[in-house]
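Consortium newsletter contribution from the modelling node. Members have asked for a concrete example of what our holo predictions look like. Here is one, prepared for the 2-acetamido-2-deoxy-beta-D-glucopyranose complex that several groups have been discussing at recent meetings.
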Amino acid sequence: MIKGANDAPWTSNMRNSTVIFILSVTLVSILDAQSTCPARCLCYLDRLPRTIACSKQGLQEYPAGISDIVQHLDLSGNSLQEIPEHVNSLVDLQYLNLARNQLTALPSDLRGLKKLQMLDLTENNLKSVKDIAAISHLVNLKILHLSKNSIEELTSLSNNRTQSLYANHCSIKELNSLSLSGLPALNLLSLSGNPLRVVLRPTSDSLRWLDLSNCLINYLNPDTFERLTSLEELRLANNPTLVYSTRYETLQHINLKRLDVSRCNLDRPGLHGFPALTHAKLSRNIIRILPDRIFAKNRELLQLYLDANGLDSLNKSSFAGLTKLEILDLSANALQEVHWSTFNENIKLHRLNLSYNGLHEFPNLTTEAIWLDMSTNLIYNFKSNVLSNMPRLVTLNLNNNRLENIPNNLESNTLKNLFLRQNRLVQLNNESFVRLSALRNLDLSGNRLTEGIDPDLFWNNKFLQAIQLEDNPWRCDCEQLYPTYKYFMESQATDRTWGLVLISLLTMVILFGSVVSLRHAMKMKRHARLERQELERAEARERLRLLQRRNQRLEEELLEQTAEPRIHPLELIQPPTYDEAVDMPRLAHSMEALDTMSMDNMSIQAIGSVDNLRSKKRRPRRARKRSQSEDNLARREERREERRRRRLSLERNNSTSVLSETNQLEESSQLTESNAEIAIKETERTRSRARSICEDGDRTKIKPRPQTPSARKKKRRAMARNGHSTDDEDSELDQLSTRLNNKSNSSIIIKKLTREPRSGRRPSPQESDF
Ligand SMILES: *[C@@H]1O[C@H](CO)[C@@H](O)[C@H](O)[C@H]1NC(C)=O
Ligand SMILES: *[C@@H]1O[C@H](CO)[C@@H](O)[C@H](O)[C@H]1NC(C)=O
Ligand SMILES: *[C@@H]1O[C@H](CO)[C@@H](O)[C@H](O)[C@H]1NC(C)=O
Ligand SMILES: *[C@@H]1O[C@H](CO)[C@@H](O)[C@H](O)[C@H]1NC(C)=O
Ligand SMILES: *[C@@H]1O[C@H](CO)[C@@H](O)[C@H](O)[C@H]1NC(C)=O
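And here is the predicted structure:
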């Protein structure tokens, strides 16, 4: 087996050491194994079954060097035209695939392939079984594929062991008594897709499975399969013109168990010749009527398919005698009604299919069915007692009907799955499911439900696991869907379907509710903003109160102090020095406020405030103006003297009234405080008032400029001197005094006062009259 070419290098290594020798032997054996693998093939000889695969390699010739130990050899999909005789050396070969080549014959001797069990000659150029006569030498051949060859008959094919023969899509036109004579062990024969017309009593004692579908069989005599004594399954599907039953005679076979005659030309079932029949497929024929007791002889029948036949009515005893029937398919017919006792005798019925019919009402059936399919009908009506005679019903499919409501008190102790997809349900009745105590799955998708599902509907459905709700025009209102959602979330039953339902519901809520929630969020935002404003206002109010309290205190202090002399602008003859300017009183009020300013308020002064700085800046200009009017100096001097005198007398006279005024101020500050509160509470009614107060608050909010220590010192000094602190307080007091003035008793005092022009302000018109 070792080839010389590989030998030479390794023999030289052998001399060096035994270790290398052993190694080399191993390598040689590997190389040897590979060397026996033909070009363009894959070899798997180190495992069972030992396989060489050379499929679809474009091989023109049988590849050389195929190891004798091969068990499975795949040469399919090549262009082989012949197989050489030396294929007989493959003594272990069990499986030989020669499909889709161009073979016209096999070697005349195949005796060497003693273990060959399966030979696939599908889709070659075999013209006749005579060209493959050597098959008879294959003493172990069990399965033979001859499909898609131009073989016209099987008569001379012989093999004592062959059990299965596939000769589909060949050119076989006739099956007669000699056809199977060379295949005594044949079990299965598939002749589907042949131009077979004539079937004349084929003979085989072993054949159990015969497929004659997709042929051209026209008529079958009653005794056609008489000599296939062991036949159990017969497939005759899609013989478009096939008829085997007339009024007088019908095909017969006493052992036949399974018959498929779908897509033929039967106008009646004709099953009475098959007493052992268990499975009958009569789909897609033209059976229009089912007379009473027509299946009475098929006592063994388990499955009967009569779908797509054009049945427009069932007699109430059509299925009588079918006591073992388990599956009855009557779908895709033209049934408009079904008598309630039609399935009375089918006591073993498991699955009853009435889908794709024209039923208008849910039939009042008495049936043992476990699975009842009535989908795709025209059912619009449905009575509450319809399930009462279905003692074993577990699944009821009513998808694709026209139901607009589910009746109350629908009762079943066994129903687990209720499918109501694609109906016209608008609302769920609060008693619809109460008596369906075993309900597990409920499909309500594709209906017209708009209202969230009331969890109370299911109070008695303890086993409920899944409710399908998608594809309904839910009114997407979180408020009404939330109870449903909550019910689903809290429910103990949780499985994957449940999760899916939840996810779909959630997606729905999220999608449809997003708009609503967005709007809600915006509303909340607005609300928060209002609240914040409210808070700020409250803060302002608080600050105001503190301020007023401080003012009060300061005023009290003021009363105790003797007023320090201060410089009045009009006392100046020259422009003021810096210190003088600093000590000058400052005007922080509007001209209108001046009219109502009290004596005390006029003396308010602040240092380091914005207004003050502004006035400082302006001061030089003022001074210049004053200096320009130097010709009036003498007159001014006179006026000043006069005023001083007047003021002195006034102060003397009003020292008591100042006191009373302070009390007044105190009182009114309290008044203002409560006023502010009321104003804020009743924002709508007293909006203007509230706004003015708010503005006050805002003004107090403005942080004073950071003060230098010296400025602070100065300020303290000024406060001590003047009795007032900042211009903010000033403005507060401004208002206070305005209010104060509105009171008749305080106005008396104020009217008596002469106004004092302050620095940084132009004299008012009245003043210029002086
Ligand atoms: C097949 O079996 C029959 C007897 O059963 C025998 O006479 C015949 O020679 C066998 N043929 C082959 C090819 O072995
Ligand atoms: C259907 O049943 C009625 C009475 O049960 C009978 O008169 C009629 O002939 C039956 N039809 C067929 C086709 O058997
Ligand atoms: C009933 O028949 C229809 C159509 O023939 C089919 O789609 C459906 O799956 C069948 N139902 C059952 C429960 O077998
Ligand atoms: C329903 O079937 C029962 C027998 O099971 C029968 O007595 C009753 O009259 C039927 N009801 C209708 C409305 O057909
Ligand atoms: C069902 O609803 C009706 C009114 O819509 C009410 O009278 C009845 O009590 C409800 N039944 C149950 C079981 O909730």
